[in-house]
Amino acid sequence: MITLENNRLKFSFPGLTDELRQLISVELDRVTNRLIAEDRAMAFNQLLKTNHRYSSLDDSEKREMREALLALKPEKLRQAILSHSGQTNLVDSTSRDGFTVNISFQRTLRIPDDGKTYPLPPGLGAFPLRLIDDNPARVPAYWLKRGGVMLPIYQAEALWLAFKTDYPCALKVGTGKINAISGASWTPVLGKNPQDYVILPEQPWLDGYCVKKGSIRQFVAMPLGEGYTAEEQVTGSGEHGGIQLQIYPLKSKLYFEETIKPRFPRTLADILPRLIPPQSRVTGAAPLRPSPASAASIHIDEDALEMGLGAGGSIRQEIYQDGRPVDAWDSSATSRCFVHLCNSAVWQQITGQKPPHPPFKAAIYAKHGLPWFDYYRDDIGALQGSSILKKLKSVFHVARNKVEPSLIEQESVEPTLIIQYGQKRRPDEVREWVE
Amino acid sequence: MGHVQTFGEYVRQRRENLAESDRAFSVRQVAKRVGLEPSYLSKIERDEQPPPGEDKICRLAKELGDDPDLLLAMAGKVSTDVLNTIRARPMLFAELLRELKTRPDKAIHRLVQEVRDGEW
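^ inputs. structure came back:
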């Protein structure tokens, strides 16, 4: 299921979450039965020998603890195992959302297409998103047929995709139904040879087309029908435009085996401090929970309405290799969404709301010494890049032949402040996008 | 006013429909998968026992290919997450539900903001 929350697409997998709850429940029974049968007196004596927080207790405290442990009921043990495994929220909650993937579309600078490879540009806030179904009378019938959402974008404006998830997923991204990773025509299945998807959460962002190892060409919006877009250059026609997303979560059984099962205690000793804490006043602080998100007949010129994405300047960005086999991803739990790119000039006619201001020019941003970003991981391999996408003519190149001054303005810039991110810091805290 | 189908009648009808083409939907097998005694499920289906707890209803809904919220509503229950949401702001949600009760489905779908996938 996909919902729209605070200008983000939220993909959720209720069926998969139910499957995980079942797997956890079976494992919980199994581990509870095993640990309850262990020799508790021996485990307690061992704890006294090896843990000074217990050995320093006085005799009456030790006796009290030993008795509490010997009288341990399976239900209490079960709760302690669940808490140790970190799955209490998932199992106790009957919310059907469970794991989610959030995708937003970030406004950004357009990088000069001057032959240089730039660091990652900043996020200047999320594009507003609206359901196509919100304005059925004001959008073309073929948009209604496709469903999905729309966002307002100016001609020659750039964007990047931000991903936030707590569950491993494979994500296919298309522009005009051309795969942004492989350059092939859109198919509803995952391809591994060559890989035609990004892996989450390893890939925090996607800024453009995967053209070569370690480098992408920035996504830049242009009107359909003038030869700028990747779709038109690859297929010869501008039929679809927009952005297509299809997500495949990791199979629940694999996630359970890889991530959840290893967190279960192996022996009673692993969870004794949880069952009989040395000082009852020492309790963990309750985790902070984020507050819930607070979430006429007009002639529309359909020709001027729709935008597609073409290739802009070069940016350093790796697209990570999937280390799993392709059948690790659950094609039965897939969901997909068509994101229509609506010309900002007509957005207001459709929605009655103003589109965001056009973004800064890269030169102005750089002149003020504002930060750029770099993200690097040496623990995962990067894809080589697509030979099809490598041949794309950039929007700048196409515009130069058409003499369109707004695009020819391509002043080179010198980023001075580059913030480096890697494995040590979570990438979802960077690039300063405004939620 | 016509007869309103009870929880038991509905479950029985759904299960029997599925059992026509798949023997895995016998009372015994469904009960086993859901974690109920077959005799208990049989009594629930005949309305001789009240509906089971939330967890079993959700499992039953999954077995029968139904939405858990639908079965919970038929059993006169509300899922815990919805209940907690209402408890957090009871006046506001009571007002909201009263306001929405006569609105068409389409208007309510817009409120939920579910993204529909079409043909492309």
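The radius of gyration of chain A is 26 Å. Chain A has a mean pLDDT of 86.
thumbs up if we can close this ticket
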